[in-house]
Design a protein that fits this description.
single chain; alpha/beta; Isopropylmalate Dehydrogenase; 2 domains; ten-stranded mixed beta sheet; two-stranded antiparallel sheet; 43% helix; 18% strand; globular
Length: 357
């Protein structure tokens, strides 16, 4: 296979974790005989510094013509002043909208080897394997915004079509798994959530009668994610709720640094990134966890390049590396030396090499 990948390192720890993801991507491609053209491009705060725009025209064009986009992280205090007119996050929202990637898949799976890395009891974590499907291009993040000297307004808007398409993505995924979909909203208060619940229910009744549907309010969902996480299979929700709840859910696995994501639209091209931020407090220290990025590479292989075997091999290499003790400080056992970002990448590559020895 031949494919073009746009690589956006971004800010903070983004370039550090992307470096390990790229090493693993190249290793998989070499092992299986694929030819990948990787192009590194400025994005986020780094692009603001370079040319005053978090999403330069050349970067957007390269992303549009690529088969997939791999992103590290964006943002940081130097670009986050309250009165800043240009922010890294504007580039990310624009990129998602321009690429039409409205469905954000965020899997959460607890590895037995990392049961000690979470603050939650092992018996609660045992068997947790769920996927969030977050609507990514609508809601309050993309609604009308106004501000004056004494007030501010952020409008949350959803259309029937937006809810229908994200429900279909989530239900289709649930049909491939345990055939259970949980839809999260705040329909006791919000009109957008009442539309969400009504439309989601209609799609499920008419198109996915074989998938069980559960409606749950977002505040109850936040509680039950900690209380009974293994009961969930696929969870679908709107943009902001999904943003918040998946950070909470990452603590089930032990660290925000472990979780990957895939942002998909109607075609094969997707945007792949770990769910964590740019972590400027640890940037440049070589201690960031690259596993979320490497697992995002696996999702890229699976969803955009349709290389299921290669994706599985990479995921297994990450799992084995962790089981063998390759852990950065965020998931290291007490009293055990933490691995550097590069050393975790080395351990994953070593397992890949053993697989093809």
């Amino acid at each position: 296979m031949k494919a073009r990948i746009a690589v956006l390192g971004g800010d903070g720890i983004g370039p550090e974790v992307i470096a390990e993801g790229v090493r693993c991507l190249r290793a998989v491609a070499d092992s299986f005989g694929h030819v990948l053209e990787l192009t590194e491009l400025p994005f986020g705060g780094a692009a603001i510094d370079a040319c005053g725009d978090p999403l330069p025209a050349a970067t957007l064009q390269a992303c549009r013509s690529a088969d997939a986009v791999l992103l590290g992280a964006i943002g940081g205090p130097r670009w986050s002043a309250p009165d800043a007119q240009v922010r890294p996050e504007q580039g990310l929202l624009r990129l998602r909208r321009e690429l039409g990637v409205y469905a954000n898949l965020r899997p959460v799976k607890v590895l037995p080897a990392l049961a000690d890395a979470s603050t939650i009891k092992p018996e609660v974590l045992s068997g947790v394997d769920l996927v969030f499907v977050r609507e990514l291009t609508g809601g309050i993040y993309f609604g009308e915004k106004r501000r004056d000297s004494t007030s501010a307004v952020d409008v949350c808007t959803y259309t029937t079509g937006e809810v229908e398409r994200i429900t279909r993505v989530a239900a289709g995924l649930a049909r491939q798994r345990r055939r259970k979909l949980t839809s999260i909203d705040k329909s006791n208060v919000l009109e957008t959530s009442r539309l969400w619940r009504e439309v989601c229910g209609k799609v499920m009744r008419e198109e996915f009668p074989d998938v069980a549907l559960e409606h749950i309010l977002v505040d109850a969902a936040a509680m039950h994610l900690i209380r009974r996480p293994k009961d969930f299979d696929v969870l679908v929700t709107e943009n902001m709720f999904g943003d918040i709840l998946t950070d909470e859910a990452s603590m089930l696995s032990g660290s925000l640094g472990l979780l990957p994501s895939a942002s998909l639209g109607d075609g094969r091209r997707g945007l792949y990134e770990p769910i964590h931020g740019s972590a400027p407090d640890i940037a440049g220290r070589g201690i960031a966890n690259p596993c979320g990025t490497i697992l995002s590479v696996a999702m890229l292989l699976r969803h955009s390049l349709e290389l299921e075997a290669e994706a599985g091999v990479l995921e297994q290499a990450v799992t084995r590396a962790i089981e063998e003790g390759a852990r950065t400080a965020d998931i290291a056992a007490p009293g055990v030396r933490a691995f550097s970002t590069r050393e975790v990448g080395d351990a994953v590559l070593a397992n890949l090499a053993r697989r093809h020895a």
